[in-house]
Amino acid sequence: MLQLLMSPRTARTVRGLLGTVADAVRSIVTPAVLIEAQQLETIEAETAPDPADVYAADELPEVEAIETAAADYAAAADQYRAADRAKRKTRKLLDRLPAGLYGGWLVSRTPSSRQTADLDAIRAIYERLGLGDVPMKQSAPSLKVERIDVPALTA
């Protein structure tokens, strides 16, 4: 019943908050070594296979170089997300403007050169010809970089 009163975004936020609280409780109850093992299992279960051109074991850069690259990537990704949110916010106003000159800014629209397949038309053709479902392929996996705390193992 509560879900009917919440927007999908609010429901996701509430689920995320509940997940965070559950993780916090589990981290207190579960020993640190088990948490590390659980994190690794979760990471391995949720990841896509490596591409073919990854470094071989003897080609790996120094850990410090990897940490620097990962930190730089994470910072750039955060900046990109913030810029994308700002762009979407300002587009709400700009998308509704008719083409014209506004102060020192010219607002106009140009046709896109990008094309995408019309899946509804393709599905109709496949259905009409009795070819079954439209073949689809997975997109390339996204690179995900996140900072995790690795508890020190005591001997």
Strand order of the largest sheet: 1-2
Q: Give the helix proportion (percent range).
A: 40-55%
User: Which parts are unreliable, with pLDDT below 50 for 5 consecutive residues or more?
Assistant: none
Q: From the alpha-carbon coordinates, what is the Rg to the nearest angstrom?
A: 24 Å
Tell how many strands the DSSP assignment holds: 2
Please provide the ordered H/E string of secondary-structure elements: HHHHEEH
Q: Quaternary state, please?
A: single chain
State the end-to-end distance: 51 Å
Average predicted local confidence, pLDDT: 80
Number of distinct helices? 5
Structural class label: mainly alpha
How much strand?
A: under 5%
Major sheet details = 2 strands, antiparallel
Query: What form results from the Cα inertia axes?
Result: extended
Descriptive account of the structure:
- This protein is mainly alpha-helical and 155 residues long.
- It contains 5 helices and 2 strands; from the N terminus they run H-H-H-H-E-E-H.
- The chain has helices at 2-5, 8-29, 32-46, 63-94, 119-129; strands at residues 100-102, 105-107.
- A two-stranded antiparallel sheet has the order 1-2.
- A hairpin with a 2-residue loop joins strand 1 (100-102) and strand 2.
- The termini are far apart.
- 0% of the residues are buried.
- The model has no long low-confidence stretch (mean pLDDT 80).
